[in-house]
Amino acid sequence: MNFEFGKYYHLYNRSNNEEIVFRTDENYVYFLKKYRSFLQNLVNTIAYCLMPTHFHFVVRITTTDESALQKSIGLLLSSYTKAINKRYHRHGGLFQPHTKAKEILGDRYLLTAISYIHQNPVRGKKVVRLEDWPYSSYRDIVGMRCGTLPDKGFYRKYFKSDTEFKKYSEKLVAGIEI
Q1: Which of 19, 1, 39, 11 has its CA nearest to residue 81?
Q2: How many other C-beta atoms lie within 10 A of the C-beta of residue 35?
Q3: Could you tell me the sign of the dihedral formed by the alpha carbons of 99, 102, 103, 108, in that order?
Q4: Cα angle 90, 94, 100; round to 5
Q5: Domain regions of the chain by residue span
Q6: Which residue, 91, 104, 114, 115, is most buried by CB atoms nearer than 10 A?
Q7: At what angle do helices 107-123 and 162-174 cross, to 10 degrees?
Q8: Is the CB of residue 6 less than 8 Å from the CB of residue 61?
Q9: What residues contact 74, with CB distance under 8 A and at least 6 apart?
Q10: CA angle 6, 12, 16 (to 5 degrees)
Q11: Does residue 18 sit in helix, strand or coil?
Q12: Rounded CA gap, 23 and 166, in Å?
């Protein structure tokens, strides 16, 4: 992974052998707490979605210390894995060895990436509506929850209101065959 200050990236990783990574509500919340602890001062979180076997984040890099960012991503995953291993009496790696980081070039791709990660639960047939999945930033962005992880101010550059973003997202998700 190579990161550059001020650029946007789609970060994602999945479990080994399609193992369930987030088994309970508590697991999802704990992962986000760890994420905030390790990465909050290094990235600006634009959007996220946690799925049972994988995660996605859209972030903007706010540090010039690339090695600290890479180390923090590794620490996030290893500390979460240690906690899950202890809690569920398992051992070994939980995530695939390399977290992927795709640079997002251009506003259109940025909005597409955000929409894509919010659509994951619908595409995965976990829910019918975007707002029904509690483990993504969608509810925060459209004002249904007061979460502070995603940068809601970011969306004002592209949308006049929470309602406008919601309509945009619903229009895109309407085209998904379930």
Answers
A1: 19
A2: 22
A3: negative
A4: 175
A5: 8-174
A6: 114
A7: 60
A8: yes
A9: none
A10: 155
A11: helix
A12: 28
Q: Which CATH number fits domain 8-174: 1.10.10.10, 3.10.580.10, 3.40.50.150, 3.30.70.1290?
A: 3.30.70.1290
Residuewise pLDDT in 10s, the chain (178 residues): 789 999 999 999 999 999 999 999 999 999 999 999 999 999 999 999 999 999 999 999 999 999 999 999 999 999 999 999 999 999 999 999 889 999 999 999 999 999 999 999 999 999 999 999 999 999 999 999 999 999 999 999 999 999 999 999 988 877 665 5
Global confidence as pTM: 0.94
Contact call for residues 9 and 23 (beta carbons, < 8 A): no
**What is d(CA 98, CA 74) in angstroms, rounded to the nearest whole number?**
9
Contacts of residue 177, Cβ cutoff 8 Å, sequence gap at least 6: none
DSSP-based three-state secondary structure for 64: coil
